[in-house]
TrEMBL record:
The keyword Protein biosynthesis does not apply. PROSITE patterns: ZP_2. This is DMBT1 protein. Residues 1-109 form the ZP domain. The gene is Dmbt1_2.
Amino acid sequence: PYYVDMNQNLFLQASLHSSDQNLKLFVDRCVASPNSSDFSTLVYELTKSGCASDPTYALFPSPRGDVAQFGFNAFSFLNRFPSVFLRCELVVCRRHDFSSRCYQGCASRFKRNAGS
C-alpha cells in the first residue's frame, strides 16, 4: 500500500520490461475502485480511451517509450472507504508505427471496420 493525504498529487510510472527496444507503452484506461476485486460496481474513471476523465489526471512526457508516467490528485470514495485501488490498462505498440493506438493519443471515438 501507498499512503497519501486527500488531494495530494500522486505520481505513477509503468515500465515495460522487454529486451525489444522498439516497443512503446500507452496508458489507455485507468479506473479506481474501493474494492480490490471489483472494478465494475463502484468505480471512478481517471482516463478512458487515452482521454482524461478526471480534471486532475495528467500524462507526463517520458524520455523513453517503454515508460509511461502519469498522475492525479488523491481522492476517496464518499469518505466511506479507507482505500482506493487502481486498475490501469496499457497498450504496447511498435515504436514509430504511427498508425498504432499508441500514437493516436486521446481517441473519444474509434472507427470500426464493417467488413465485407
